[in-house]
């Protein structure tokens, strides 16, 4: 395995920042991982495991080792009359896995089409879109424990998946390097079309019977119409989480702002649409230097050119302050600030 110095990260962070890592290596075996961990220990440096960098904001050059996952391969590892268990290497692009499943008529992840990032990052974030989360189909995760340098298998329950959260982002942050993910997909897909205008978008095809392919195509069309392509305009998807509030707080807000957009959770609490809060504070389409709020989706902060990380963070701070002042709601960043 080749450890490289002063490695450019421009192609490895979807904000497109022009930053470097002091050291970089790409790992594709447990042996590679042990070697990388040993190098960091011997040199007293930090490491950070990176997929495609689609949900991180580096605040500047990274003064340690970027460990880039290169585990490949997709294959069926088990099945039963109703399900197929698909195992995929953590370095594969997530959307390639979705396409693979949809091509075989397997149901479960078609709503998660076109999400940027790698397979390995999917459980870290518990990626979600259009009414589905990876939590709904995750069977298990294989990883290397960077402390003991042993291979481990974590069940979906072990991963403690929550809204854009998991043990990999919270209690066990930095502890595991995910090498593969196994999903439980259905041979007889039950389509989930209840989110927003997804049903109308699928129906627009004019077909009488829909399948996972139609759902994938519809999700791709909706995403392309609302969200910026990081290849064209640097961004990391939703910058903030949708905040959860207590019912009494929500009722009060609803009286003051009748147009507020919120979803009732099974717990009785409400999830507020952060995009609406930010838009209502007047931020949609606003530019601050080279940083900006996307003009079609206020939850997305974009790099209009050569924005520096601090410009993006400054804009995010101002948004947080104004949402707090107007609604009394604290926004939490979804993006991982490194
Ligand atoms: N809205 C506004 N103004 C805006 C943006 C949204 O009023 O500028 C309203 C919309 O009209 C809609 C509601 O807010 O009624 C929700 O908007 P949308 O469906 O676009 O979804 P979101 O809550 O803003 C979440 C996820 C996205 C995911 C979409 C679709 C989070 C933090 N974000 O966004 O995930 O694609 O739902 O399911 O939960 C990501 O995590 O990076 C991401 C893009």
Overview of this protein structure:
- This protein is of the alpha+beta class and 338 residues long.
- The protein folds into three domains: 4-69, 2-Layer Sandwich (Uridine Diphospho-n-acetylenolpyruvylglucosamine Reductase, domain 2); 74-226, Uridine Diphospho-n-acetylenolpyruvylglucosamine Reductase, domain 3; 234-337, Alpha-Beta Complex (Uridine Diphospho-n-acetylenolpyruvylglucosamine Reductase, domain 1).
- Helices cover 25% and strands 28% of the residues.
- The protein is built from eight helices and 20 strands.
- It has helices at residues 30-43, 94-103, 121-125, 198-203, 212-226, 247-256, 274-280, 309-327, and strands spanning 4-8, 20-27, 47-50, 56-57, 62-69, 74-79, 83-89, 128-129, 132-133, 138-145, 150-155, 176-186, 234-238, 244-245, 262-264, 270-272, 287-288, 291-293, 300-303, 336-337.
- The chain has a five-stranded antiparallel beta sheet with strand order 6-7-12-10-11, with helices on one face.
- The protein is globular.
- It starts with a strand and ends with a strand.
CATH architecture of the largest domain: 2-Layer Sandwich
Radius of gyration: 20 Å
The SSE order reads EEHEEEEEHHEEEEEHHEEHEEHEEEHE
Overall structural domain count: 3
Q: Which cofactors or ions or other ligands sit in this model?
A: uridine-diphosphate-2(N-acetylglucosaminyl) butyric acid
Number of helical stretches of at least 4 residues: 8
Tell me the helix content.
25-40%
Shape: globular
Q: Spans of 5+ residues with little confidence (pLDDT < 50)?
A: none
So what's the CATH class of the largest domain?
Alpha Beta
CATH topology type of the largest domain = Uridine Diphospho-n-acetylenolpyruvylglucosamine Reductase, domain 3
- Share of β-strand residues: 25-35%
**What is the makeup of the main sheet?**
5 strands, antiparallel
């Amino acid at each position: 395995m080749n450890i490289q110095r002063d490695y450019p990260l421009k192609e490895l962070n979807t904000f497109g920042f022009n930053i470097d890592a002091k050291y970089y290596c790409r790992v594709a075996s447990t042996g590679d991982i042990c070697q990388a961990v040993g190098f960091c220990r011997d040199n007293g440096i930090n490491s950070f495991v990176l997929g495609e960098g689609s949900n991180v904001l580096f605040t500047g050059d990274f003064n340690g080792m970027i460990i880039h996952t290169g585990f490949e391969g997709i294959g069926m590892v088990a099945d039963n009359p109703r399900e197929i268990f698909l195992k995929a290497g953590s370095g594969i692009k997530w959307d390639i896995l979705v396409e693979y499943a949809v091509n075989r008529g397997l149901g479960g992840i078609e709503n998660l089409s076109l999400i940027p990032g790698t397979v390995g990052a999917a459980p870290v974030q518990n990626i979600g879109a259009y009414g589905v989360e990876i939590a709904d189909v995750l069977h298990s995760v294989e990883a290397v424990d960077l402390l003991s340098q042993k291979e481990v298998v974590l069940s979906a329950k072990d991963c403690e998946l929550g809204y854009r959260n998991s043990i990999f982002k919270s209690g066990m942050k930095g502890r595991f390097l995910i090498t593969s993910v196994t999903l439980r997909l259905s041979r007889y897909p039950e389509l989930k079309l209840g989110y927003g205008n997804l049903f109308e978008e699928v129906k627009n095809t004019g077909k009488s019977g829909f399948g996972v392919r139609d759902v994938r195509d519809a999700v791709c069309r909706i995403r392309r119409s609302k969200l910026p392509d990081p290849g064209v305009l640097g961004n990391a998807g939703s910058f903030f989480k949708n905040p959860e509030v207590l019912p009494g707080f929500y009722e009060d807000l609803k009286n003051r702002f009748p147009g507020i957009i919120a979803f009732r959770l099974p717990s009785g609490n409400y999830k507020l649409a952060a995009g609406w809060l930010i838009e209502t504070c007047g931020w949609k389409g606003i530019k601050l230097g080279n940083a900006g709020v996307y003009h079609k989706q206020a939850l997305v902060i974009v790099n209009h050119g050569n924005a520096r990380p601090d410009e993006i963070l400054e804009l995010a701070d101002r948004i947080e302050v104004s949402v707090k002042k107007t609604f009394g709601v604290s926004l939490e960043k979804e993006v991982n600030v490194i």
